[in-house]
Amino acid sequence: MEENTPPPHRRPYDLPLPTPPDALRRGPLREGTFGSALHEPRTAVVLGRWLGAALLTCFLTGLFSHLVQEGPGWLPSRPVNGYRVTQGLHVISGIAAIPLLAAKLWAVYPKLFEWPPARSVLHALERLGIAVLVAAMLLELFTGLFNTLQWYPWPFPFRQTHFWLGWLATGGLLLHVAAKAPLVAAHWRRVRPGLAQRRAFLTAVAASVGAVTLTTAGQSVPWLRVTDLFAPRRPDLGPQGLPVNRTAVQAGTATVPADWRLAVDGPRPLALSLADLARLPQYEAELPIACVEGWSASARWTGVRVRDLLELAGAPAGARVRITSLEADGPYRVTDLPAAHARDPLTLLALRVNGEVLDPDHGYPARIMAPNRPGVLQTKWVARMEVL
Amino acid sequence: MRTLRAVLVLAGLALTGYGLYGLLTDHFVQHPLEIAEWAVGGLLLHDGLWVPLICVLGATLARSTPVRTGLVLAAAVTAVALPAVLRAGVDGGNPTVLPLPYLRNWLLALAAIAVVATVWALIGRRRRRAG
To answer: Which residues of chain B from 112 to 131 reach within 8 Å of chain A, CB to CB?
Structure first.
């Protein structure tokens, strides 16, 4: 009796969808359009592993940097080069992801034209998710690369968009791995004999990653400077041999008022001229400027220890310091120096760099230089320090 | 495997949801639709123009391993270098941005790739003849 057999159990999201008529299978939708033997799962899995590692590195270092800039209070002041390493890694892994993403998408490109376009509701959802993932990743890498050049051809704000797209892309990546887990597991290990073409292609992709890394990473890795062809910064080019993110002219601080005094607001308020500051004990520290955009450069900074100034002003131990710059506006005109940084003997109110009085572009008359801190928070053209 | 997949799905949904929520509520992002337009535009350019072009190139020009490797390298280097080449000289008043001769460097890199691929192809041909 036909009526008595129960229908096969199907979850609602797994409902099969009808296959469109075969007459629609034209162009790339025809079987056998893509001739290369490399459009196969093992190639996709190997590339996917490399790309996944690059994207997760990018996401975690980016998240770290965002948290540091939102509230630097929790960041320790050591290791001195900590932020320099994480931001260098952020940009290096982001640039490496460009050839990796291109190769991965090329390898799986025929899947875009698979037939039927959607086997079930779940399959349709998975494909939609991949579209979101790919779009988010393409835009993320594009905006990131262009930001390092200070080029903003799009109408939306960079920082916020790049941050939120990072969550979207990483979430999409996790969903994609979950969906493809059986396929990934089946092709995780190499089956012998290997495919000669695959080996050649993967070698070409690895060489591409090496090439784009070697020709750009010199902006953050000092010993790669000789191969640096395409980085938007060179750590040794700029006034006093150092790059600048915002010049004195751009910040409107090219001329400093003749009666400039550093105000230190604490229990014993101070107003110190440059001559007063020069009479205080001077210290020297080798510290990097490490930019969010990946470049970093070390220099010898000389000046007064911030903790000496705080003691003179009668600040209690564990006090935070609010630093105000001479610049009229800018998102980092006022920044907070957490207690760990303020008390660190390496944290300077720097008056000189590499033996010379600071160039206006480097923050004349005085700037903050602290270990393990984003470049944008190393306030230039300091006007005021306020004990909190 | 089932547990791992379930964890991945939950984490993936959480991260995606958080990202979407952020894009829609961040008060600096006043027109989220503009981002969607750029995202879809990028997808269309990549999948509709760039990859088909690569596929046609691969099927016609890049039949040998040295040529294919050379083209893969040239494409990767160009993707990273071209924005700097196009932008060279536009520094907004800050000469430490883009201070290198990017056009020259890009052409040098392409020439080096072409030389290596050619030498490799010639050696391969001689070996095949000898063998």
So the answer is: none
- Quick one: three-class SS letters along chain B? CHHHHHHHHHHHHHHHHHHHHHHHHCCCCCCHHHHHHHHHHHHHHHHHHHHHHHHHHHHHCCCCHHHHHHHHHHHHHHHHHHHHHHHCCCCCCCCCCCCCCHHHHHHHHHHHHHHHHHHHHHHHHHHHHHC
* Closest in A160, A177, A237 to B8, CB measured: A177
Contact A240, A353 (CB under 8 A): yes
A354 vs A287: CA distance, rounded Å: 11
**Angle, vertex CA A54, rays to CA A52 and CA A60, nearest 5:** 95
Count of H-run helices and E-run strands, chain A: 9, 10
| β pairing state of A270-272 and A262-265 | antiparallel
Contact, A323 vs A309, CB < 8 A? no
Task: Specify which residues A348 forms β-bridges with.
Answer: A305, A369
Per the CB < 8 A criterion, the answer to whether B83 and A151 are in contact is yes
A99 touches chain B (CB under 8 A): yes
In the A/B pair of chains, how many CB contacts fall below 8 A?
Answer: 215
Please tell me whether residue A362 adopts helix, strand or coil conformation: helix
Question: Is the ipTM, as predicted for this complex, more than 0.90?
Answer: yes
Could A229 and B108 be called an inter-chain contact, meaning their C-beta atoms sit closer than 8 Å? yes
- Selected residues 57-96 of chain B with any CB under 8 Å from a CB in chain A: 58-59, 65, 68-69, 72-73, 75-77, 79-81, 83-84, 87, 90-96
What are the strands of the beta sheet with A321-325, ordered from one edge? A270-272, A262-265, A382-387, A321-325, A334-337
Q: What is the pLDDT of residues A70-88, one digit of tens each?
A: 877 788 998 999 999 999 9
pTM of the model: 0.94
**Count of CB atoms situated within 10 Å of the CB of A123:** 18
CA distances from B117 to A96, A230, B57, B65 (A): 22, 21, 16, 9
Q: Tell me A322's DSSP state.
A: E
Sign of CA dihedral A7, A12, A18, A19: negative
What lies within 8 Å, CB to CB, of A140 at 6+ separation is A162, A165, A166, A169
| Chain B residues close to A207, C-beta within 8 Å | 69, 72-73
Contact B8 A181 (CB under 8 A): yes
Residue A208 Cα, gap to closest chain B Cα (Å):
5
Q: Is A23 helix (H, G, I), strand (E, B) or coil?
A: helix
β pairing state of A283-290 and A270-272? unpaired
Provide the 3-class DSSP secondary structure of residue A190.
Answer: coil
Q: Per-block average pLDDT, block size 10, for chain B (131 residues)?
A: 94 97 96 96 97 90 89 97 94 92 98 96 90 72
Exposed, middle or buried by CB within 10 Å (0-12, 13-18, 19+), for A188?
Answer: exposed
Report d(CA A95, CA A144) in Å as an integer: 9
Bridge partners (DSSP) listed for residue A120: A16
A379 and A330 Cβ atoms separated by less than 8 Å: no
